Amino acid sequence: MRVILATGNEQLNKALSAATGAEVAAELYYREALATGRQAVDVAVVSTELPGQMDLPRAVLPLRLAGTRVVVVGPGLSGPELDELLLLGVYDLLLGDQPLSRLTEALRRAATLGEALQATGRQIPPAAGGRILQWLRDWRGRSPVYHAPPPQVTEAGPAPSADEGTRKPLLRPLVAVWAPLSTGRTFVAAELAVALGAGGVPVLLVDLDLLHQGLGARLLIPDRLHPLRDALAADPLKGPVPRALPVWQNVWAYADSAGGLAAPEDLLQWVLEAGTPDADWCLADLPGGGPLAEWLLPAAHVVVFVAEPDWGRLRTLRSAYQAVAARQPVLAVINRWVPVPHASPQDVLGIEPDAVIPFTAAAYAASVHGRPAQEADAALRAAFDGLARALARKLPFAR
Questions:
Q1: At 45, is the secondary structure helix, strand, or coil?
Q2: What confidence tens digit (pLDDT) does each residue in 310-319 have?
Q3: Taking the model in full, what pTM does it have?
Q4: Are 299 and 168 in contact (CB under 8 A)?
Q5: Whose CA is closest to 202, among 90, 317, 119, 283?
């Protein structure tokens, strides 16, 4: 368990660290540091006496958006502050004098909303979320906004982001379909989703190539429907994420027929983790480069790396594959394979691939009509069934 200790009390910090054995990611001594930090931690212990100009609920808002549980300790708070903390999902409210054993228990076991309401005696008024909505708008306004740029290809793949070493995987298993070049990522993502759904795994398919939105065209989503645009325009404090569009058996999709979309990181994470809860896994079609790929690749539980037998670009593909495979689980896919003399699929990346997707013109033509290409070709269906089984063996959350 990784924690932030923002108690303002060095002796208490040492005692909590020793009693729980938790890894201390940071010790903070003023409220504004909470609001600017983006550490990937499990729990933050925050004192009501922590100095700073910012209201405590606003200071912990970024932590809650990042999925960090917040434990509040110290003297009592005002009624409006308690209401706002409860709306933010802060239920561990250890107000007043508390023994060390109670604090360590709170680190190990999260309180429920019912327990928090009983302990504080509060009944949250409907108007209590007004200030939080404004804070969230302000926070989005200064969050990094990712307009997916044209892919910038390097031989080593995407450059690691500054905080890559502290990224936590998303709560729902995330499978990133990626390559630094145009190798048929969208085709592979769509067909893999079909195979998973047919095998009984409910899948959320998300087109995160926000600039081009090729998946929407692949699925023939009508212009009047905008499932991804609607999800990215939703307000986390007003209700759940709008549902994705059901496209095939056990497959829902967030995609649009037109690109040019943009979204802050915290909102994208909310959509990936909470959108359409029927789905057990999230399958994301990533852009070839840019900040969005740099963020989500390290966060993925498994990367499906899509290569093709383009012999003039093998050096770039191999370097990118080796860079990703050195840091996380990867499945290597050779797409659009056509048998040629004196060459094999192993020659593409220099390793035995996990799946080889044959190129058949008739099967690819079927996808033009919005139907799964594997319906038209038994070899294609067998290849994606095998890839789905290999993915199930890689994922730590596989059924």
A1: strand
A2: 877 888 899 9
A3: 0.60
A4: yes
A5: 283
